[in-house]
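call fold(seq) -> tokens
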Amino acid sequence: MFRILGMLRDAIMGMLIGLLEQDLLPDVVIRRIIRVFLASRLLHGYKPTRELQLSQLVEFAKSLKEMPISMNTGKPEADVYELPTSFFEIVLGKNLKFSASYFPDKSSKLEDAEKATLELYCKRAQIKDGQTILDIGCGWGSLTLHIAKSYNNCKITGLTDSSTQKAYVDERCRELQIHNVEIIVGDISTFEMEATYDRLVSVELFEYMKNYKDLLKKISKWMKEDGLLFVEHYCHKIFAHHFEVSEWLRKYDWLNKNLFSAGGVMLSADLLLYFQDDVSVVDHWVINGKHFSKTGEEWLKRMDKNLPAIKQMMESTYGKDSAVKWTVYWRTFFLFIAENYGYNNGEEWMVAHFLFKKK
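ret:
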């Protein structure tokens, strides 16, 4: 009986994925499937007692200390960078901030939310003019460029694993006549340097790492004695888990295979508290998931508004036969963000902020 049910389940999933990849599933159905998946994740993640819940988190933290900093060492660039920067210029806000934004009020536009978020980072990181700043995982430079424009006497170094992103930020600096920014290409898990900084910031990089003990030890060496480290990561409020292909969805879980392929972690809101060997926490905040959910909805709207141009990009990047499939993948990724972080009124998955000092 169980074998028959398993075969039936696989057949249904195969049919749904086939329909999805042909763009034959309406959004209302996709959203419903995502919510079913999220409910299943919660059933798996929550334990029957607080004792078991805490034990699971402690054991998970211990297991990470036995792993490398990253499971993706040696890969030159993440798959996401296969797409041209023009794709992200269309779907993201004008700051090209490919991370959660904070919406001060319901009427905020994405650009206003991006600016409010960048200002919040600077406030919580205690950035002041004249400091040296290291932006670890700087992306397309949203925070690096914001600091450079807002604090003229700061010297900002951005670290990215993407030569495409470096080229973009360098070009933006030339256009804006910004002279206090340097972008370095390197893999955080293997990158070494002698320089130290007043402030270090890392926005949504830790999700792609594993061994936070070794990672924070490395980062602490780049902190001046009175330096501070600000970290943002998305998370679940209670439990943590690896990003990995679900066992019973192994044939069909394209989301993990294609867009969470860096072998990272969904952290819990307090997971980093177990990695204070070389840094110690100064402050800790969480932001309700509805803000990230709205960010995903805004990205989706921009994508849908520009579908003809985006489909051409998909054809040139993935080939004509795969263009529809990859367009659907990206739309579903944005739908997933909207549903994931909006689940239970934003009180399940959310965004965490930490401020650390050097020990």
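The radius of gyration is 21 Å.
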